[in-house]
């Protein structure tokens, strides 16, 4: 499949370089030859299902996990390689954990100042006050963690990690213990804070909506390997392989064949015009990825499809539609168009990014 990725045009200085790293537990390789880089000021995510290796990579960057291959550098200083492991406290990397890990016997202010103990009291107080104002907790500085809500505790954990002015902040599923609405709001607030301070960060998450909203760059992991490291737009519209296409977003693969013109694909929904020439010969069998927003209602003509399933989400409804041959597509339609199960609708396609994979793949 040809590459039609959209890239960020601004040139930034590389902060973190992860090169061909491999991690294993006893004889099991859990991270295999993973490479990516993080620029100064970028907020990134490692995304994937449980057991894919994303937390192991985060631990390796933090210094809690040794490498069996490759290396990790921060500002051109090597932190890890097979015969080298700089201690976590010497890396100037902050970390926010899933369970917050606040000290229950310390006040909010003292938790934030914990990593500043070698600095003068006046400087500690100044940093704590600035961070408390930044995370909007100035009025609870003398409370203890058990007196705070989950969202407030997470803000304290963030402020404590930011207090020593780390070069890089690592966040290990920090919002997973919060309810959905608070999780969404707090993740955006944390992003704004990091952007204001110009601090680079890497978030580990299994929630792709969270990763997309939070991050400038997202890396999708599967089976310990990095499938694609890219901006969210490209992960959705230009997946590099079937694994990415299956995991990111929603959609279905529709069988087709390459047309006489190599930028066309003939399918049950008609001949679809792609935005690129495809690398296969005319007549080659392919599978076309159609996202729910690629399928639209047709007022004139179109193909008949039967409603099999529907999921109402407020402003829109996601329909699973069965075509005459039994193939399925999904369509995201305005919720005021309310169709019943087994009702027939007329559909067509409007796909700006027509992604295809070889059937043999």
Automatic annotation (TrEMBL):
GO terms for biological process: quaternary ammonium group transport. InterPro entries: AAA+_ATPase, ABC_SmlMolc_Importer, ABC_transporter-like_ATP-bd, ABC_transporter-like_CS, ABC_transpr_FbpC, Mo/tungstate-bd_C_term_dom, P-loop_NTPase, Transp-assoc_OB_typ2. GO terms for molecular function: ABC-type ferric iron transporter activity; ATP binding; ATP hydrolysis activity. The keyword Cytoplasm does not apply. It holds the Pfam family TOBE_2. Its EC number is 3.6.3.30. It is an enzyme of class 3 (hydrolase). PROSITE patterns: ABC_TRANSPORTER_1, ABC_TRANSPORTER_2. Residues 16-248 form the ABC transporter domain. One of its GO terms (cellular component) is ATP-binding cassette (ABC) transporter complex. Keywords: ATP-binding, Cell membrane, Hydrolase, Ion transport, Iron, Iron transport, Membrane, Nucleotide-binding, Transport. This is Fe(3+) ions import ATP-binding protein FbpC 2.
């Amino acid at each position: 499949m040809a590459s039609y990725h959209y890239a960020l045009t601004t040139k930034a200085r590389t902060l973190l370089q992860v090169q061909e790293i491999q991690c294993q537990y006893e004889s099991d390789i859990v991270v295999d030859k993973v490479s990516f880089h993080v620029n100064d000021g970028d907020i990134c995510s490692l995304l994937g299902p449980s057991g894919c290796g994303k937390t192991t990579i985060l631990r390796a960057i933090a210094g809690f996990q040794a490498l069996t291959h490759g290396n990790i550098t921060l500002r051109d200083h090597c932190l890890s390689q097979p015969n080298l492991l700089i201690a976590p406290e010497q890396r100037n990397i902050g970390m926010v954990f899933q369970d917050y890990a606040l000290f229950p016997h310390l006040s909010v202010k003292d938790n934030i100042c914990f990593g500043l103990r070698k600095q003068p009291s006046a400087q500690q107080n100044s940093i704590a006050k600035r961070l408390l104002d930044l995370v909007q907790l100035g009025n609870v500085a003398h409370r203890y963690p058990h007196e705070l809500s989950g969202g407030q505790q997470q803000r304290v954990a963030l402020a404590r990690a930011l207090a020593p002015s780390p070069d890089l902040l690592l966040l290990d599923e920090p919002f997973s213990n919060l309810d959905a609405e608070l999780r969404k709001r707090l993740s955006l607030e944390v992003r704004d804070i990091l952007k204001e301070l110009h601090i680079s960060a890497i978030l580990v998450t299994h929630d792709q909506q969270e990763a997309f909203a939070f991050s400038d760059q997202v890396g999708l992991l599967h089976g310990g390997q990095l499938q694609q490291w890219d901006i969210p737009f490209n992960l959705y519209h230009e997946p590099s392989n079937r694994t990415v296409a299956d995991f990111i977003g929603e959609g279905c693969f529709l069988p087709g064949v390459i047309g006489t013109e190599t930028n066309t694909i003939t399918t049950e929904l008609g001949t679809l015009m792609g935005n690129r020439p495809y690398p296969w010969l005319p007549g080659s069998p392919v599978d076309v990825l159609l996202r729910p927003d690629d399928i639209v209602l047709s007022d004139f003509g179109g193909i008949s499809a039967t409603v099999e399933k529907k999921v109402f989400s407020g402003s829109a409804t996601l329909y699973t539609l069965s075509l005459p041959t039994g193939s399925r597509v999904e369509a995201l339609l305005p919720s005021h168009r309310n169709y019943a199960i087994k009702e027939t609708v007329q559909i067509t396609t409007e796909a700006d990014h027509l992604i295809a994979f070889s059937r043999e793949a």
